């Protein structure tokens, strides 16, 4: 039986224009169904986003059920007092794997930011739980007792999400004409990597263009598996350049490709820009959460184009940028040290002025996807 999800108990997603994501059935990918592979290939090159329909797959339905449980856990996490959450925040814990929050910037007469924990409402917040901590691959960062108590659930969820990633990597390797296991070998579950689960939270707030722009980003890992229950995620469509909502679909989380896949494939695959804004009415009266699994290349993988298959037919771009390992890349991108935006042409650092989107992406780096 299909797992129950929270969607049905929430106000409905309204009939606003929404992004044309195709739906790919996980069960069909597991069976190697050629039409599902074709849909995966088109989505990976076209929009870089698709729904992954979990229903009818044992693995998929387990993930949906676990995501609901983790969403209940994140409700409890978000209801902790701010002072308690701050114990697990930057900079005490880790520059990237930590609790982070944005605030409405109140300035004093000198233009200095007023820090008043009780007054300034917290804007979008997130909390990261590292795969290597949960699977015992690294000394564990401090975390609230409720997270430790959910160890079995988190470990199972991470293993299950990674199994989905493995399946996608296997098919994408074949579709790209690469030697067997090429992408799998760069993303082994038991190797150290920047994979993590993210809880995100946005309070009820009016739409604000400046805030929306600061959050525009591409994900800088390889593949992302995203559950959300209310609208608010928007992507900018490659053809019309319009921001459009992505409708949450029960049982069908969203998969999107990140910057590493663009680099590995010399621009064949797409990492599309996206952002989170308040949900469309009538969903805007509720705070919004999402649950994200980010899959990144193993820490010591050097980010450069792969050789083989149809990647070899791609033009060679002249770049003087120094090569980085995956770990250097996510650390720099995730902590705002490398503002910029990733496009088909590769990474474009923000140098100021000019492109209307460049300023947004400089700030987007702070969104730390
Ligand atoms: O909350 C969402 O729906 C998307 C979150 C996201 O894009 C991210 O955390 O990178
Ligand atoms: Fe994202």
From TrEMBL:
The entry's keywords: Iron, Metal-binding, Oxidoreductase
Superkingdom of origin: Eukaryota
Single Gene Ontology MF annotation: oxidoreductase activity
Gene3D superfamilies, per database record: B-lactam Antibiotic, Isopenicillin N Synthase, Chain
PROSITE patterns referenced in this protein's UniProt entry, alphabetically: FE2OG_OXY
One Pfam family recorded for the sequence: 2OG-FeII_Oxy
Keyword Translocase: no
Residues of the Fe2OG dioxygenase domain: 193-297
Record keyword Metal-binding present: yes
Protein family membership: Belongs to the iron/ascorbate-dependent oxidoreductase family.
The protein's name: Fe2OG dioxygenase domain-containing protein
């Amino acid at each position: 039986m299909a797992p129950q999800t929270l969607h049905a108990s929430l106000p409905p997603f309204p009939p606003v224009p929404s992004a044309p994501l195709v739906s790919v059935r996980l069960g069909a990918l597991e069976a190697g169904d050629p039409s599902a592979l074709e849909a995966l290939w088109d989505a990976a090159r076209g929009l870089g986003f698709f729904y992954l329909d979990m229903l009818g797959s044992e693995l998929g339905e387990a993930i949906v059920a676990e995501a609901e449980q983790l969403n209940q856990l994140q409700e409890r996490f978000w209801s902790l007092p701010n002072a308690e959450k701050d114990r697990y925040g930057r900079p005490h814990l880790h520059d990237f794997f930590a609790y982070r929050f944005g605030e409405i910037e109140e300035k004093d007469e000198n233009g200095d930011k007023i820090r008043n924990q009780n007054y300034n409402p917290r804007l979008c917040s997130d909390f990261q739980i590292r795969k290597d901590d949960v699977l015992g691959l690294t000394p564990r960062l401090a975390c609230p007792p409720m997270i430790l108590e959910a160890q079995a659930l988190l470990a199972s969820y991470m293993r299950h999400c990674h199994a989905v990633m493995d399946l996608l990597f296997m098919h994408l390797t074949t579709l790209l004409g690469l030697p067997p296991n090429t992408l799998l070998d760069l993303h082994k579950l038991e190797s150290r990597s920047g994979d993590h689960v993210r809880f995100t939270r946005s309070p009820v707030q009016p739409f604000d263009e400046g805030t929306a722009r600061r959050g525009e980003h591409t994900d800088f890992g390889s593949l992302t598996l995203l559950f959300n229950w209310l609208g608010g995620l928007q992507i900018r469509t490659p053809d019309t350049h319009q921001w459009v909502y992505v409708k949450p679909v029960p049982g069908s989380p969203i998969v999107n490709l990140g910057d590493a896949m663009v680099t590995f494939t010399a621009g064949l695959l797409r990492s599309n820009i996206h952002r989170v804004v308040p949900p469309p009415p009538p969903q805007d009266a509720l705070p919004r959460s999402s649950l994200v699994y980010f899959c990144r290349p193993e820490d010591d993988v050097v980010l450069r184009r792969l050789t083989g298959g149809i990647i070899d037919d791609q033009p060679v771009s002249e770049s003087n940028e120094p090569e980085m390992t995956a770990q250097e890349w996510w650390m720099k991108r995730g902590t705002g040290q490398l503002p910029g935006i990733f496009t088909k042409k590769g990474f474009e650092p923000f140098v100021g002025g000019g492109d209307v989107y460049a300023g947004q992406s400089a700030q987007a780096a702070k969104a730390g996807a």
